[in-house]
UniProtKB/TrEMBL annotation:
Localisation: Cytoplasm
Protein's pathway: Cell wall biogenesis; peptidoglycan biosynthesis
Active site: R177, S227, E297
Protein name listed in UniProt: UDP-N-acetylenolpyruvoylglucosamine reductase
Entry's Gene Ontology molecular function annotations: FAD binding; UDP-N-acetylmuramate dehydrogenase activity
Name of the coding gene: murB2
Domain FAD-binding PCMH-type: 34-198
Keywords recorded for this protein, A-Z: Cell cycle, Cell division, Cell shape, Cell wall biogenesis/degradation, Cytoplasm, FAD, Flavoprotein, NADP, Oxidoreductase, Peptidoglycan synthesis
Length: 306
């Protein structure tokens, strides 16, 4: 593997200086406000640059991590080695007829608002999801009865070798909060959504209602990773946690929200370790009380502090 100076030099052959940050604190890029430093934090502005970074990582056997907008993610306190790739600068959204092409770094909320502006229905469910388009496809994000697989027609991805592929929706094995993108090692660059014509006032009324439900029920005033757990078959995670008497409890500065038991908030300068320990405490308690194993929806990456 190259040394850090050689890595930096090769990255600068691909990316301009403003798109490379060294020893970048990842708590600047996560909704939990947690996480140590990335050795190299890169923000490509073209698909070719993404391909070239992937090829460089392969050639030099560099550790390589893709970061969305950090909404459904916990980065450990020791940070992330190698290259962390952020697609936040690839954020264009275009509409042609009933089809929308949204780049990976665009917020899925903004895609839903653009659909509203164009009088198109199908993305109302996404009006309160805080992630990017790429992150939404990565986990087949959904809310209030809708999910990405309902509207996805195809997507452009980069594979592990750095090849650019256009794949139909059924190539991604989209299921409840699941896709095969992690296993395949794909990097989503853009998604093509197939929407339907609708009436502006009706679409807006649905979005306003969903926004009210979200803002009134979720603890948006504190940093958090959003909903921590997947819905277990036959149950609701938040209800199980609430019935376990865990609201207001946690480890260190992390706490199970009193407003919505499905959220763990960074209430008082928590560390990532404390946040993860709080998740594990919830899982253990719910398992002991109800015999239900709560599966994490949130991803955890990085290294512990030595």
């Amino acid at each position: 593997m190259l040394d850090d100076q050689s890595i930096e030099h090769k990255l600068r052959e691909i990316l301009s200086d403003e798109n490379i940050l060294i020893n970048e604190p990842l708590n600047n890029h996560t909704y939990t406000k947690l996480g140590g430093k990335a050795d190299f934090f890169v923000t490509p502005t073209s698909y070719k640059a993404v391909q070239d970074v992937v090829k460089l990582a392969n050639q030099e056997q560099l550790p390589f991590t893709l970061l969305g907008n950090g909404s459904n993610l916990i980065v450990k306190d020791g940070g992330v080695r190698g290259v962390v790739l952020s697609l936040k600068k690839l954020d264009d959204i275009t509409v042609d007829g009933y089809e929308m092409i949204a780049q990976s770094g665009a917020r899925i909320i903004d895609a839903s608002r653009e659909a509203l502006a164009e009088h198109l229905t199908g993305l109302e469910f996404a009006c309160g999801i805080p992630g990017t388009v790429g992150g939404a496809l990565f986990m087949n994000a959904g809310a209030y009865g809708g999910e990405i697989k309902d509207v996805l027609k195809e997507a452009v991805v980069v594979d592990r070798e750095g090849n650019l592929l256009t794949l139909p929706a059924d190539a991604f094995d989209l299921q409840y909060r699941h896709s095969n993108i992690p296993e395949k090692g794909y990097i989503v660059l853009e998604a093509l959504f197939e929407l339907k014509p609708g009436k502006y006032d009706e679409i807006k009324a649905v979005m306003d209602d969903l926004t009210y439900k979200r803002e009134s029920k979720q603890p948006l005033e504190y940093p958090s990773c959003g909903s921590v757990f997947k819905r277990p078959p036959g149950y609701f995670a938040g209800k199980l946690i609430q019935d376990s008497g865990l609201q207001g409890k946690g480890v260190g500065g992390a706490e199970v929200s009193k407003k919505h038991a499905g959220f763990i908030i960074n209430k008082n300068n928590a560390t990532a370790t404390e946040y993860i320990q709080s998740i594990e405490m919830v899982q253990k308690t719910v398992s002991e009380k109800f015999g239900v194993n709560l599966e994490r929806e949130v991803r955890i990456i990085g290294e512990d502090l030595e």
